[in-house]
Every structure is written in structure tokens, then in C-alpha cells.
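Repro:
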Amino acid sequence: MRKEAVDLYQKLTNEWNKKPQNFDKCLEYLTQLKIILSETGFIPTPGNPIDKRELHLARDVFEIGAQCSIAVGDIHGFERYISQLKSFYFDFQNEISESPFKYQLIGLNLLCLLARNRLSEFHTEIELLSPHLIQTNIYIRHPVSLEQYLMEGSYNKVFLSKGNVPSPSYNYFMDILLKTIREEIASCMESGYKKIMFREAGHMLYFKKEEELIEFAKEVCVLQKLKFLCIFYFLEKMGNGI
């Protein structure tokens, strides 16, 4: 194992464990470590001896990378790290000790797929897990329950789940999922109503505060041109509308 990689790994973990973290520094160390790991071939090839220290270091780096990506809102970066972590979680699970972050990150990946409506990939990932794990692990059970609520159309249960996430890192994808649901509801409302009371609109879209509904309407009117929201919800309250 190259000393340069060990030194950078120590700097990365020290920075990541600070409160608050300096994400720019973490990303800088991650970029340097990924270059070194790609040069050294961090995933063993068949027939070659396994260096468990290197496997542990590479896995820890990618786990920090996945969590850091969520912290800075980089979904594609998160997905790349998860893709690399799968080898450590499944192919080499008997070679190195289990990571305490394994199921948290697997659950985050499931939630990411769900929030982005990639349901076929969601079910493919579920098939890699045992039924017992799906039912008992809090990190896995959360996105699985959400998918069931969505299939049932029980949106109220989905919104209630926002206050019961197994880790704060889940809030990022929960917010994306809830925004997607609200946009779908708003689109259906536009097709089904000519007029609707302001308060009732907020209730149907699961908003507790009037300000949240106004901000949502501003955004969807600009991005999706749902004029229904602009005209009937806010024309009177905001003068000329949005």
C-alpha cells in the first residue's frame, strides 16, 4: 500500500470527522485518492492475492465519497461511489469486515432510485437483499415501505415518513421524492379543477404553511407552466399573480 494513499486517507478521515466538515477539502482529498487508487488497482483481479488493508482503505474512501456527495447535492457523484461500493459489499463481503455504513448507504441508494422514479432498478437492487434484512433493517425497510405507500397511493404516509428517516442523510432524497409527488398532484389538480380554495390547495399538496405553497407554485409555474396554480391560487393574494 502506497504511503501517499495512507497519508491522504488520514487527512480525509480527519477532515470528515470534524464538525462542521470542510467539504471543499474533503472533495480535494477524495479526488487525489481516487487517482492513486485507480493507478494501484484497488479491486483485486482473479488469481491475485488480496490485500485486506487496501480493500478497507478503498471502501472507506468510497463511503466517505458517497456521503460527501449527498452533503453537497451531487447525485451523479453519489451514484458513481455506490457503483464502486457494490464490489466491496457483495463480491468481497467474506474477505473484509462489514462496514457500519453498509446498509445506510444501500438504503440511501434505494431511496435515490425511488426518488428518481427508477423503479425497475429499485426492484433489481432489492433482489440482492434477503427477505429478513428487508423486513428488519431500518435503513432498508424505510425505502421499501415508501415504495409500498406509493404503489397504494398513500401519499399521506409518504409525507409522514419525512419525520421518521433513519438517518439525516436520507432527508436529501426525501425532499426530492416529496417534490416529485407534489408536482404530480398539482398536475392532476390542474386537469380536474377550474377553481379551488387556497387553503384546500395547500391541504391537497400537503403543505402546512402558506409560504411553502406560494414558493412551490412559483417554481412549478416557471418550470412546468402549470398556469392553474398561478391563476387560481395566487392572483388575488399576490396582486398580478406570478
